[in-house]
Design goal:
The chain is mainly α. It is built from five helices and three strands.
């Protein structure tokens, strides 16, 4: 009976079955979460050692705030590891921001939306329909947000996740 239920669950949730490898999951965790942790560790420790104020900006994703709409992907789904790790980046950001605030170290993240990089026309159209601005971002449209988070214009911001997604997460 249990194996019948497990088989039914497994076929219903392909991403949780053997079709989604633990190796892929672990590699994603290593790059997207452990990488953020290690980079933060190096830079924050250097700031503390040199007794300087500083800013850490982590890169999350709009999919760290919302779940992907699997209907827009060309016959596939967005892998579970991406969304989960980007949620984790926001969590690390919030944790580090409170822990190091008294050291004059601000930690924020940015959650960019989809960037146009020659994806299929069908994908671009489907994603653009989910964005109030009705388009994906151009590669250079995040520069201003990064400059803002690094500057004194955001000197009273820490632990914030700046969503820059053309309004997608509003819907």
């Amino acid at each position: 009976m249990f194996s019948k239920i497990l088989s039914s669950i497994s076929s219903s949730f392909k991403l949780l079955s053997a079709d989604f490898s633990l190796d892929v999951w672990n590699k994603s965790l290593n790059v997207n979460l452990t990488g953020v942790f290690l980079c933060s560790q190096v830079f924050i420790n250097k700031m503390i050692k040199d007794n300087v104020k500083g800013v850490v900006i982590n890169v999350a994703s709009d999919l760290g705030v919302i779940s992907p709409d699997h209907r827009i992907y060309d016959g596939d789904v967005k892998p579970v590891d991406y969304s989960v790790t980007k949620h984790g980046v926001i969590g690390i950001t919030k944790y580090l921001s409170t822990y190091f605030a008294d050291k004059n170290i601000r930690v924020n993240s940015i959650s960019p939306g989809g960037v146009y990089t020659n994806q299929s026309q069908n994908f671009v159209k489907r994603l653009s329909n989910l964005i109030p601005m009705n388009r994906m971002a151009n590669k250079d449209e995040y520069k201003g947000s990064i400059v803002f988070l690094c500057s004194d214009a955001s000197s009273y911001m820490t632990g914030h996740n700046l969503i820059v997604d053309g309004g997608r997460t509003v819907w």
